[in-house]
Amino acid sequence: MKTSWILFVGLSVFYAILTVIYWQLGGEAVGITAISLSAGLALIVGFYLWFTDRRLGNLLPEDNQQGEIADSAGEIGFFSPHSWWPLPVALSASALALGLIIGWWLVLLALGALIVSIMGMVLEYERPTTSAH
Amino acid sequence: MTTYASPAVKTNRPNLVAVGTIVWLSSELMFFAALFAMYFTTRAVQGPKIWAESTEMLNIPFSATNTTILVLSSVTCQYGVFAAERFQARRTGSLWQISQWGMREWFALTFLMGAVFIGGQVFEYAELVHEGLTLSSNAYGSVFYMTTGFHGLHVTGGLIAFLIVLIRVFKAQKFGHSQATTAIVVSYYWHFVDIVWIALFTAIYLIK
Q1: How many folded domains does chain B comprise?
Q2: Which of B109, B128, B130 shows the shortest CA–CA distance to B60?
Q3: Could you tell me the pTM of the whole model?
Q4: Secreted as a keyword (chain B) (predicted)?
Q5: What is the ipTM of this complex?
Q6: Structural domain of residue B62, as residue ranges?
Q7: CA-based nearest distance A2→chain B, Å
Q8: Are A128 and B171 in contact (CB < 8 Å)?
């Protein structure tokens, strides 16, 4: 991961230098804000990668010159095999945005539906073992 | 998620949920970059007069107190993460033994402090509207409510996220890696929103 964080932190330093140059050349507010916060954009990812690299303290198979595909096998994480919940989340989010054009009554309805469907999505696999499932 | 929870092995790769959250947060930063750019441009175009008149209405001591509460809530949130990292969901002592607190107690306290911040902001808006500064009163009103309002919506979203974490931990049979991950990524978001507010507070209330 060393290469990864050097890449992102380097990008951040590049944007920081660019901000100073742009500012000195008489750049306007939007550009200064956008370029300096681009440095932040890269720094967030860079800092996370640096911190995780230090914390894990090992060489990832991706960074190993002699690495094989099989080296990175193993548990990646939990992925939902099948779920209907993203559909109501997307529909109520669309209704929320449409409500800004159509009327506030729809915004309120959609907001309620959005919260319920988000709850449904994140709690889907959080079932007590005592239930019938 | 208990049936799917991974065994307590030492992880040797970055957590995918955390990586996704970090990438999303970096894009969120650019969303706020647009708001900052809007604020600075409007200020440059409108001239200093309208800014001087409007910023006089701001109640700096009040908003500084509110800011302090939000910054401190980031500290309590981090203590909740420390508890989550040792897989301690609930307190082991009485409510007054803070050193025995689990993730639940720390996150509940963070939630309360975040709610106080939002309440304070609503109060501040009400005062400003009373004094004649609204979203459509002048250019300053527009950018002020747009920037602080979008931040307020983010804090509200964070409050809902804290509720979801607390509900998930309540429903789960045991506190495992997946519950700890949820708690940790919500804390990333909370710290991000906190840092954005420090920048907004500096730009709007201190530099003016």
Answers
A1: 1
A2: B128
A3: 0.88
A4: no
A5: 0.85
A6: 14-206
A7: 13
A8: yes
